[in-house]
Amino acid sequence: MSVRQSLLAILDQGPCYGYQLRTEFDRRTGSISSLNVGQIYNTLDRLERDGLVTKDEVDAEGHVYWRITRAGSAAVRDWLDAPVARTEGTRDELTLKLTLAATLPGVDIAAVVRAQEVASRARWDDLTARYAQVDAGDPASVIAALPLSAALFAAEGELRWLAHVEQRLASHPPRAMALELSAEKPKRGRPARRV
Amino acid sequence: MSVRQSLLAILDQGPCYGYQLRTEFDRRTGSISSLNVGQIYNTLDRLERDGLVTKDEVDAEGHVYWRITRAGSAAVRDWLDAPVARTEGTRDELTLKLTLAATLPGVDIAAVVRAQEVASRARWDDLTARYAQVDAGDPASVIAALPLSAALFAAEGELRWLAHVEQRLASHPPRAMALELSAEKPKRGRPARRV
DNA sequence: CGACACATGTAACACGTTACATGATTTG
DNA sequence: CAAATCATGTAACGTGTTACATGTGTCG
Question: Is there a single domain that holds both residue B12 and residue B75?
């Protein structure tokens, strides 16, 4: 959803042609997350399908311009006005992995956590070093480094969480869950109400 | 990728039928992130396509069992052995939104950040309250609450990041970027090399 | 009987991503 | 000329997600 919204927000500044959108996107978000060109045209088609943009004229140089619609502008306003909601069932891979792994017989969950800590720590180190080189006095640099700092703070949170998990699991070692055999359960149909 | 891997990891414990996989998944990861049943059969087909599971026999009650293959077990081992890699171009929605918004003329980026802080703070409060009610002495509860604590630590990181961003942007206010007019750029073809 | 849980499956869709085809234009 | 960039687009695929159809068996 974010690429889509980003392109739309750029188009809200004025009509653009596809390749230009890519340039603008990269320029604004830093080349870190460079978009594949094909995705632009893809996304534009989908935005058009949803009535948020329209295909405009082709200029003398053959550029195919796209223009945002009223509905599109409204969508941008909504996007900017409303905070990003972190949904409950966010299905973060690491969270799911550790939660599940903690229930699996034959898995040394503590080892999994420690291995993750090593990797996350290495990443944190790398991000920290790179972020330290950002010129905090240059507004453009500060903006360009936002994704970097976001990754850094996220890594920090991840490390804190891992330490917390390690501690909790250590003080109260989890018992792995075996598969529930279907023999233990009622065959089919509505089960007896638990008392 | 995480749902897929999770189901595979459960199947590594022994053959299961579709509905059972859902039960096991919910039981192990907490009903927070309850899976839609349809997705199970979907994912199983895809796993079979990739040679990681095979359709097994149907038992007397009509349950269609699935069995993991050698390749599947190997994939599970790899998954558990390797830490989760946070890729660089992670395209987090909030990160992308703020980065982009900071470059858009007509957008009060400070207001956007503040609104997000309010929302994130509210979420943090909620998560904190709920996590406080978890019985840290019960191993099963601790595991079941892992997604909750993960969300909590992530929210904490988000708040820290937002505070950091607010401060940086305040001390060095960003200059919004206008669209680059194509008139200012070379027409088509390879551009002149920048000196 | 009706509601509900158990159980399997299909079909469509969302967004993101990549590979590929095609061609114009300019620089070296 | 060759290579690189500018530029548009198509086609396919990946996972996640949901809606729907269909049926069985049990409990109240």
Answer: yes
CATH code, domain with A12: 1.10.10.10
In the sheet with B16-17, reading across from the earlier edge strand, the strands are: B16-17, B64-68, B53-58
pLDDT digits (tens), chain B, 195 positions: 899 999 999 999 999 999 999 999 999 987 667 889 999 999 999 999 999 999 988 888 889 999 999 999 999 999 999 999 988 776 899 999 999 999 999 999 999 999 999 999 999 999 999 999 998 888 888 898 999 999 999 999 999 999 999 999 998 888 878 887 655 555 665 554 444
Same domain? A33 vs A107: no
Find out whether B29 and B8 touch, Cβ atoms under 8 Å: no
pLDDT tens profile A93-108: 999 999 999 999 999 9
> In this predicted model, what pLDDT tens digit does every residue of B137-191 receive, in sequence order?
888 888 989 999 999 999 999 999 999 999 999 988 888 788 876 555 556 655 5
Report the distance from CA of residue A19 to the C1' of nucleotide D6 in Å, as an integer: 8
3-class secondary-structure state, position B138 = coil
Q: Is residue B194 part of a domain?
A: no
Nearest to A61 among B62, B147, B187 (CB): B187
Do residue A94 and residue B116 have CB atoms under 8 angstroms apart? Answer: no
**Do residue B60 and residue B107 come from a single domain?**
no
Would you give the distance in Å from CA A112 to the centre of its chain?
23
Whether A87 is in a domain gets the answer no
- Return the closest-CA partner of residue A112 out of A36, A42, A176: A176
B133 touches strand D (CB under 7 A): no
**Could you say which of A13, A62, A154 has the minimum Cβ distance to residue B104?**
A13
Rounded alpha-carbon distances, angstroms, from residue A73 to A17, A67, A143, B105: 17, 10, 24, 14
A61 is a domain residue? yes
Domain residues for the domain of B156 are: 93-177
- Where chain A has pLDDT below 50, the residues are 192-195
